[in-house]
C-alpha cells in the first residue's frame, strides 16, 4: 500500500512539475494560448431550427449589476437576424452568444432613451468588421433620423481611419454609416415571405412616439414591449403570442430604495426613483393581462430596478404567478416552427 502511495505521489509531482514548466515558459504559454484561441474562436452557437429569442440586455438604468447589460433583445432565424434596442454593454452579450454580426439585417428601436440606443455605434462597427457590405438599417419611429444622423456624424472620422488602415476591399466605405428607416406606428415595418415585424404604439409618457414590436415567423411569435405601462394597445397586438417580453417594475424593491434615499437626505434620488413609477409596468399588473390575451409565456426584462442578487430576484417576483420568467442576460427562448413548444435555456 505504501509503495502505491509513493508511486501516486511521484506521478502527481511529475505532472505538477510538467504543468509548471508549461505555464512558466514561453513555449508552453504559446502552446496553451494557441489551443485556447482555437477553442474560443471556433465556438459556434447551438443549431437553430425556427426562431430564437436571446436576451442581450435585461437591465434598466436603475441598478448597478455588471452581469446585466441594458435593454437589448436579439431575434434570430436561419434566414434573419435582428436586434431590438441596443443598450449599453449589450455588445458584450452579443459576443458571448457568438451572434452572427456579419449577417445582421437591422436594428429596431422602441424609443430614444439613452439606455436603448447607446450601443448603436459598437453594433454598427461589429457588423461592418464582420462582413456587412451595405449600410446597417436602423428602424424606428419619428426621430430615428436625428439619432442615426448624430451617430453617423460623430463616428465619421473613426470610419475614415478604419478604411484607410484596413482598405476599402475589407471595409467598404459605403457600408460604414447606418441608414435611418423611419415609420409610423401600428404598421408592418419589415416583411419577407417568412417573417414580419409589426410596430405598435405603447404607453411611456411623456415619451412619444414609443413603440413595441411583434415578430411572426413560420407560425411562431414574440412580442417585445420596450418601455411601457400595461397598455391596451400592447396586449391587443400581443394576442395569442407565444412569448411576451415585457418591461417590469418592482414596487417591492423600489419602495424601500426610495425610503432609504429619503432617510439619508439624498436630494435628487427620491424624486428620480418616484418619477419612474408612472411609465413602467408594475410587475403585479401583467400576468392576468397576459393570460387573458392568450399569451403562452410571459417574461420580464428591462427590470426596474435591476436585481443584483438572488434575494432581490425573489422579491421582484413577489405576488407574481410562478409561470412568469425573470430573465437574465443570455436567457434564450427557442420556438420551433409550426409548434407550440418553447424551449427555455438559462444562462
* Spans where pLDDT lies below 50 across 5 or more residues: none
Tell me the number of structural domains: 2
Radius of gyration: 24 Å
Any guess at the CATH architecture of the largest domain?
A: 4-Layer Sandwich
Q: Which oligomeric state applies?
A: single chain
Write a short abstract of this structure:
With 347 residues, this protein is of the alpha/beta class. The chain contains 12 helices and 15 strands.
Features:
single chain, 347 residues, alpha/beta, Metallo-beta-lactamase, Chain A, 2 domains, 8-stranded mixed beta sheet, 7-stranded mixed beta sheet, globular
Describe this structure in words.
With about 350 residues, the protein is of the alpha/beta class. The protein has two domains: about 1-40, no CATH class; about 50-345, Ribonuclease Z/Hydroxyacylglutathione hydrolase-like (Metallo-beta-lactamase, Chain A), CATH 3.60.15. It has twelve helices and 15 strands. The strands form two sheets. The protein has an eight-stranded mixed beta sheet with strand order 6-5-4-3-2-1-14-15. Strand 14 (about 330-335) and strand 15 (about 345) form a beta hairpin. Helix 1 packs across helix 2 (about 25-40). The chain is globular and about 75 Å long.
List the helices and strands and how they pair.
Blueprint: H1 2-24, H2 26-41, E1 51-57, E2 72-76, E3 81-84, H3 90-96, E4 106-108, H4 114-117, H5 120-129, E5 136-140, H6 144-154, H7 156-166, E6 178-182, E7 187-191, E8 195-201, E9 211-217, E10 220-224, H8 232-237, E11 243-249, H9 251-263, H10 269-275, H11 286-292, E12 297-304, H12 310-316, E13 325-326, E14 332-335, E15 343-345
Parallel strand pairs: 3-4, 4-5, 5-6, 10-11, 11-12, 12-13
Antiparallel strand pairs: 1-2, 1-14, 2-3, 7-8, 8-9, 9-10, 14-15
Helix pairs in contact: 1-2, 9-10
